[in-house]
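From the pipeline queue, job 12 of 40. The input is one protein chain; the requested action is below.

Action: predict structure.
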Amino acid sequence: MGEAMFLVQAVLISLSGALSPGPMTAVTIGKGGESPHAGAFIAIGHGIVEFPLMIAIFLGVASFFALWHIKMAIAVCGGCVLIYMGMMMVKNRHNLNQQGSGTNASPLIAGILLAIGNPYFLVWWATVGAALIGNAMEFGIIIFILFMFCHWMCDFIWYYLLSFLSFKGGHFWGARFHFVTSIVCGIFLIGFGAKFLYEGMSYCKRIYGALF
């Protein structure tokens, strides 16, 4: 497989991950009610976590994120953060100035928190992402850098588009759109948070259950 074909493959796989509905999607749509540019800043916050992570995996630390203790901590902390964000989003459904993430957190900070607190994000990089980085390493450092940029641009374009469409929808449909969007996105975040907490408890059982 040539360098160009590898980058095309990497873009397609990256897009499949970005397009999958998840906490980032919910918060981006919610924050889009405040600004059409919210998705761009969420992607930048996401990249602040993602770029160092890609470099760390390039340097050979992917196995660290597969440790049960690490997965448990991320799942529990991430679950709590998502539930809080979801509850605040629903609570502030009437307040158009606080709708995005349910808090006063900027889109940039929301992007960072969503990356750090999402166990699937780290599992993806420890598995699929690590395999892509391994392939990139075969072509040299330049292709690895191009891979990082192309992967992040998939997130940037998609989340920017989502927030732009959400902002336009809000202006077209008015306050009712923001009201419904806040409730739906908030419920989704609470659901994802509960799922993360459940998985965190499962990891805890795997770790400590064998001790008794």
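Job complete. Residues 28 and 39 are 6 Å apart (CA to CA).
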